[in-house]
Fold each of these.
Amino acid sequence: MADSLVDVECRISEGDYVVLKRGDVYKSVQVQTKKKIIFEKQWIFLDAAIGELYGSTFEVDAGGKLGLRKPKNTEDDSTEAKEAGQDNRHIVDDGKSQKLTRDDIESLKGQGMKGQEIIQQLINNSTTFRDKTEFAQEKYIKKKKKKYESKITVLKPTSRILAMMYHGREPGKVCHLRYDTLAQMLTLGNIHAGSKIIVFETCAGLVLGSVMERMGGHGSVIQMYPGGGPVRAGMESFGFPSHFHDTLNEFPLCKVNALLSGTLNVDEKDRDSGKSEEQPAAPSSGGSESQSMEVSTDPAEAKKIEERERLREQRAQEKKVRMEEKRKRLAAAAALLEGRNADGLVIASRFHPCPVLLGLLRFVAPSRPFVVYCQYREPLIECYTKLREQGGAINLKLTDSWLRHYQVLPNRTHPVLLMSGGGGYLLSGITVSADAATSGAPRKTGEPAAKRIKLDD
Amino acid sequence: MSFVEYSELIQEGDVVIIFLGHDSMMPIKVESGAQTQTRYGAIRHSTDLIGRRFGSKVTCSKGGWVYVLHPTPELWTVNLPHRTQIPYTTDIANITLMLDLKPGSIVCESGTGSGSLSHAILRTIAPNGHLHTVEFHAQRAEKATEEFRDHKVGHLVTVRNQDVCKEGFGVLGVADAVFLDIPSPWEAIIHAKKAFKRRGGRLCSFSPCIEQVQRTCEALLDHGFEEICTLEVLQRVHDVRSVTLPLPDFGPEGGTDKTKIASDPLPEEVPPSTNPSYSSVTCRTATPPREMAGHTGYLTFATKPRG
């Protein structure tokens, strides 16, 4: 399999962000040697995956080590049943059909028996298996496989996989944003390479990462963030190459008003960090200076003080560099926003979308799409109403999507029994020039009714 | 203007979308000296469009106004000239995400149809990806080629006029993703398999009928595809509006009125007319449209493992 045609990026390396898949369950991890990972109540070490190809499937042994599984055709799905019943008239649920006890199974596991073999044991010890219909047998095996087989596939992360992972495992972290809704956002937002996109999200960085994936490292993204700093864990899980990160900028929400009113001074000392970072450094260095002049009697003591002094200086210097860096980044993000010519706006947050949307929309050029996600419908109704009153946006649509999966099997095709009850709501639209050149009825922009009113007066 | 890159100003030769009002739009090609008639009067390209900013309000000859919009694949989908049934944005969005499309992806598609999905794919895979699209109807293939050129995405796409079920996609071992929207997708699975890169990729088949899905899934399984998954996705629109709900009249409160009601029917009619301000409540809500698209097609996705 390993031939020269296989490019390097197809191999798993240490430090890579990968997604582990077992059945329908995903987990995003970084590959590190000797690092214990818990996945589906199982200890795993990923060491053996390093150097293998992405998409490889591994068997987990009792010690949590991975062993490469051979590709498909060698898979011995030999848990075949020879006999089958016609229907279930003779199947009685008396809880006695399985002769193996919980302890028996545990001891089989303890002996290092593979999942496949355990399932065969379960079948051999089931008094009803032979009476089950062929379909029911298949279902039984599938269910047991899910429980006892510990196959893990290592995948390269994509927004599809990460969105499904978050939705399946931790929907609360992504404001219950379902993957098909994320898909709508990226498409309705016309996210593509070379554009300048503003993102405001509190979805762990998943939406940000998905936007960046669609931009492919071309163009620029400005992440607006609430509070102390941007959250990007979900974006990091994509494992983007470093040049992607060069396209990413961040700007604090709390400075949006200053930027809009033209009073933002990026050279001014950051007030919050100024307090926490500057103050301890400044007075203490001053204090130690006077101190060292006074207490210079003991040479050893003086040396110690000197050393401490030097470290302090160094730390202060580092802080200064960091702050300078932060200021530069702020200035760069401000410069990107100031032109008020962003190509798109994507919002998905737990905040009330109305002020966020109305505030950030002012940075978007005319004739560009925007899309707002909210877990609830009513706040978006309010956004819709406000935008209608204010103007500057047309083609407003409030939607949600309905998603249903199907079981497709010969003669047994039907919708899957469970379906997601809702994937959140979207408000999308297109910006237009708000110039008052023809200011007939700006309150009802884009409505045929508005035109009639305007023609009347 | 290009479908894969925004511009600020309208230029000669651009395709622009004229927004006439709620859900009413039309695409036009900008040519100096030309005029376009709308229900609000004529738009003169030279003076009203060329050199203006996208998103501007343009006053037509009869005094009404419209907005001129930069084209996007989504606007194109609702404005394009239909030569076939087309996939709509809700399905397109899911196809794009589930096929893992991004800048640089190499995609095979069949059929091209009216180019609705093609434009969306091109937008996503630009600037360094490529779309190989196969259409068995010669005239449609020709028309699509022309449109791609007009929309300045011609360099990203190769249109082939052939039958994908017999002749495949015309390329082997290059694709990251394959999309099928043809009457008998199961006959094209073998060609799809050959089109994929050695490392594999993602496949999607769009079919309106469950019988097609059934046969396609069997073919996918036979050819070693994995993670086969069929789903259906629908967009639900919520029309925002204010609704007024009348309040019921339970008559005057308290038990003392018993005799009055029994003796005199007149008071029953008095409250609503004397107190009209309490007779109804207006609330801002959203309602579903009377009818909606209840079925477009089933989307079947699968992963082609490394070969």
Amino acid sequence: MAEPNTNPDAAVTSQEEISQEIGTLHEKYRTSLQAGGPEETTARLNFPPYRSSLLRHPTKSLHHTDPEEIELHSPAFGERDVHALESDLTIQHNGEPLGERIIVAGKVIDGDGRPVAGQLIEVWQANAAGRYIHKRDQHPAPIDPNFTGVGRAITGADGSYSFTTIKPAPYPWKNHFNAWRPAHIHFSMFGTDFTQRIITQMYFPGDPLFSLDPIYQSIVDQNARDRLVAQYDHSVSQHEWATGYRWDIVLSGSNRTWTEADQEEH
Amino acid sequence: MKHIPTPAQTVGPFYGYALPFKDGENLIHPSRPGAVRLHGTVTDGDGATIPDALLEIWQPDAEGAIPQETGSLVRDGYTFTGWGRATVDNVGHYTFTTLNPGPTAPGKAPFILLTVFARGLMDRLHTRIYLPEDIQALENDPLLSSLEEPERRTLIAEREADGGLRFDIRLQGEGQTAFLSYPRTPQQVGAAE
């Protein structure tokens, strides 16, 4: 097999070739799983169909480390850092942004089910035409002067969050020829331990681009991929105002020694 | 674990208008006593600089205490919150202004936790930036003692003449930085062996 072209802007490979590479890797995983191999729960750092990963993943194995004091804590964020209105991405300018107004709400918990309370969530996204307010985004889709696409929130005592925004559109990128990303919202989260730090992407149910996208498919396990897809939730929708999606987020396990007093705080 | 963690996805190329914030890289004002420049370059498997990486540091204060003050995103110029965020420039270079961290317990080797995000990097990578001075503490450090010399060396910052700290990050290949995994925290490099 020829060496893949590692230039991220080359866009020379066809979707068929990329899909075939994805299919081969997924097939190997399913075979391994059926033979009793381990279940994968997150994205692979080394996923060649995502061309930009080729030179940017570590080739030496990671070192298993017992977390020390600083790794068992996270920075503190609060009202001083984030204003309550920053969770509404539709009121940051003088006019109403164009597009389908939505509410995305859910809870952040850790692997043991503890709510992640009072922590920072940051989101960013493209507008309803698939355009980011970023100088390097050259996609010729219109910029919306009333939509920046950036929000922040501090989780509630029960780990809950809610953003009001506009449904983002898919957009083209240069991984391969005629490559399109499924519509998504970027999410950045902190836990109680810095080891739980995560940046990821939330997707919308039923997106026809899922099977074609090497970033989404870098998670080779279907159950794990499903965990990035929000669900339409009519109880989140608001009468004559916005449709609602629910997406709950699970951070990895905390390595702290939790006391009963810690548990009772929640 | 009762619940399976949500998978990670790359930070992508377009975080530049969203994640950086004013004085994100200045954990302390550069004019304050004790201010130290921490800087270096991020490179890929070809040794080429990466122009679109985002870095975060998280550390104890000079006395080794873990800061729990809010206000990282709206810095007041006086409160040391211990956390900062910086983007690399067009030639892959980053700069933080911070304090030398103290040991969190007597005899512990002081270090700064560093987390790397980038387009092309599907999940964040954690590593540690150790201060070079306390040789005995470095020798006793459980992580450093478990590494072979070439990898151990990648985790110890170089002290510059002006008191600054130099720490380069290589994501892949010759001299790759030693990256860390932790218990209960899934991280998937490639297919399981």
